Amino acid sequence: MVPLLENYFTQVILTSFAHERAASVDDLDKFSTHSNTQKIDNWETFMKQIISEPFYNSKVVFVVGSLELVGRISRFLNEKALPTSD
């Protein structure tokens, strides 16, 4: 069962980059006011959204939250990462 984020919210900053790259603190600061910032308060809904192909293939996702939460999402994305062609 996927836990819900209760009494806590995570901001997911969506950029228009078409490739994946690591998010640094500077990136988070830079994009924290991006017009596509979404407030996500339900972990399960968020994970379903982020692994949908059109979303996953066209966005880089920056997560602002606790280290535990960011780590959990990072691990999930690494497990679900789509194969890349060289």
Secondary structure: elements and pairs:
Elements (H helix, E strand, L loop, with lengths): L9 E6 L9 H7 L6 E3 L2 H8 L2 H6 L1 E5 L2 H14 L6
Antiparallel strand pairs: 1-2, 1-3
Describe the protein in words.
Strands 2-1-3 form a 3-stranded antiparallel sheet, sandwiched between helices. It is built from 4 helices and 3 strands; from the N terminus they run βαβααβα. The chain has 86 residues and is of the alpha+beta class. The protein has one domain (10-80). It is globular, with a radius of gyration of 13 Å. InterPro entries: Mur_ligase_C_dom_sf. This is Dihydrofolate synthase. GO terms for molecular function: acid-amino acid ligase activity.
Order of helices and strands: EHEHHEH
Main β-sheet, in a few words?
3 strands, antiparallel
Q: Tally of extended strands?
A: 3
Helical percentage? 40-55%
Give me the Rg, rounded: 13 Å
Instruction: Name the poorly predicted regions.
Output: 1-37
Strand content: 15-25%
Q: Could you give the distance between the termini?
A: 35 Å
Q: What structural class is derived from the secondary structure elements?
A: alpha+beta
- Number of alpha- plus pi-helical segments: 4
Total count of domains: 1
The whole-number mean of residue pLDDT values reads 51
Strand order of the largest sheet: 2-1-3
From the spread of the alpha carbons, the general shape counts as: globular
